[in-house]
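Record format v2
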Amino acid sequence: MALTLSQRSAQYTTSPIRDLLKLIEQPGIISLAGGLPAAGSFPVDALRAACAEVFDTQAQGALQYGPSEGIAPLREWVAAQLREQGIAAQADEVLITSGSQQGLDLVGRVLIDPGSTVLVERPTYLGALQAFAPYGPCFADLDDDAQGALPTLNAPAHRDARMVYLQPNFRNPTGQTLTAARRAQWARALQDRPIALVEDNPYGELWFDGPPPAPLAAQLPGQSILLGTFSKVLSPGLRLGYVHGPQEVIAKMAQARQAADLQTSSLTQRLVLKVLEGRLLDAQLPRIRALYRSQRDAMLAALERHMPETVRWEAPQGGMFIWLSLPEGADATALLPLALARKVAYVPGTAFYAAGTAPRNTLRLSYATATPEQIDTAIAHLGDVFSQTQVRPLTEGVLNL
Amino acid sequence: MALTLSQRSAQYTTSPIRDLLKLIEQPGIISLAGGLPAAGSFPVDALRAACAEVFDTQAQGALQYGPSEGIAPLREWVAAQLREQGIAAQADEVLITSGSQQGLDLVGRVLIDPGSTVLVERPTYLGALQAFAPYGPCFADLDDDAQGALPTLNAPAHRDARMVYLQPNFRNPTGQTLTAARRAQWARALQDRPIALVEDNPYGELWFDGPPPAPLAAQLPGQSILLGTFSKVLSPGLRLGYVHGPQEVIAKMAQARQAADLQTSSLTQRLVLKVLEGRLLDAQLPRIRALYRSQRDAMLAALERHMPETVRWEAPQGGMFIWLSLPEGADATALLPLALARKVAYVPGTAFYAAGTAPRNTLRLSYATATPEQIDTAIAHLGDVFSQTQVRPLTEGVLNL
């Protein structure tokens, strides 16, 4: 007897990225697809030692139920770290989550009604679209210019927005960063409007030449929900992130959290707190910034070397991704099998568009996982693939990301 | 500028139990309220050793992203364990969750539409009501007799049921177990109806004199969703559970999982798999069964000793809870402050009723957390409190749980 699934279930679809990740588990594939941190980036020794110490000194706490909001000293650590970035954060405005993805789900639970207008960058993070979609929003795209997404809150399609979702730092998938001037424009535009600013910041610490501008949340107290994670700086497998926001929103999210899965693992919270208190990040952050910078440099050099002239990209100043634009008429999805035949994987750009028609000529490359040598090999293959396709000459202004 | 919360947010309310747990963190309070496993029940040494081994032999896997469905060998372990209980389970019918509460949320996401009729025992598990409520079900209560909930699927209020939620073993809050005969009746009643049976089994391994009857899922292949957890047998702080069900339902839940929080911690999955493969449960289960049996015995003896004659209860054959019925007219919620003044906490029964009017004269006692000595002290105080209240004499048949 077949069971009836909820209508909501139609909103749950498999992520093309996670499907691709399964495909590329074949030996010999060089993946430029997923945003998996480089294996060498994990601080294994520090985490092993911290875990042993947690079991030696606080095993009962690590194995017992704990508060849905997260353990108090970890909430305080996050608040202190946000205060250093200019946000007047208190511990009771912080909720510990099982990774940023859960923060996005809690945002959807607590802030989105069926039909709520949610403004997103174009293109935007696929995982946010997946998290929000089951709550029934109407997505509306924001246009970009060189400074980032434009605060067009008076546009007819944007006027009734309930929420704006932005990744100001090294946006996934484009790598773009919102300039300080554009942040100020956003803050002015949002002030005195009942619109929640959801500021997703997984990559902010992965800057290469200098830190990005201060979070928008610093300029919009009481109106900002800021999402952070330890996935990119420590380990994604631990599943630890946080949400900061107005105390009444965080309290409601904690209630939603009780319904969703009670709490984040007491063990992983204590483990991460232990390495944070030991100031592991003081050494870890410079190390991984240097690592990802060298991999970005390798990819930029390889792109210069191997790509046909018709392919365009911008150099990201941090994060994990480079966004490629093939000439108009090229189809990055159709070309993917040719790339996979050369044992190289990437993510076609169409997955990252919320509304409107997605251009078919874009793709996302990650320099986070592969070594510089692998990156050069992979980009050489992609250069071959993209050169051999029939492409029309690039006309300025045709490419609209 | 106040933000607009979703209408769904009104469904997220704080759990009276978790609120009570905060209250009773005061020193000196003996808690018979929460279902917290006894601290002495945690296999600390085995988990500490397994954790060290995971870091020594598979640190990269433990710290990296993994599949949303859970790691393959843990899914296989669960499937094998279910096969031992008569369920023809395969690994791809198993989803690893961050505790059973997440399994309940995934059930809600994938099986409940607004207005779907969901049948529940009366009283039933508060956490399931909290998990399902945001998805908009209409709850309908099932009546009990001495064998457990009655399969009244032809009753007008039950005829259009989408789903039945049962806790066949040592139900939270009543401690009652569905007899083998009643399970067979349920299986016959559900067969050939498009109704999902959601069988929640957190306490099944905590039996005292003999194992409970086989899961209903063994008799209803293709129609059953079975929820299990390692919280009661290993540690709730690790947050590890599982769902078994038809492959197409599990696949949809895995997609929902991607949207919700991607996956369960790679570290905690490997840690638990390691102790399971080391056959820790062979020693752990007899140990905790004996522990909880001794605490149940202490509570039953204390109840006999200290309770006025007007108070009634049944002896549970496993699990963590004893359900008390005060005389009609007594109000367990109103009496709670008197108990707290004596430094004893319990949970009033009203929280566990989904529909209809909740009787005010019931309460749940947990023997899981306190020692036998503490249990005797606490029950003596409760006996005083319940004796001093004005109670009408108990009339047979008035108490309807």
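The first strand of chain B starts at residue 30 and ends at 31.
Chain B touches chain A through 86 residues (CB under 8 Å).
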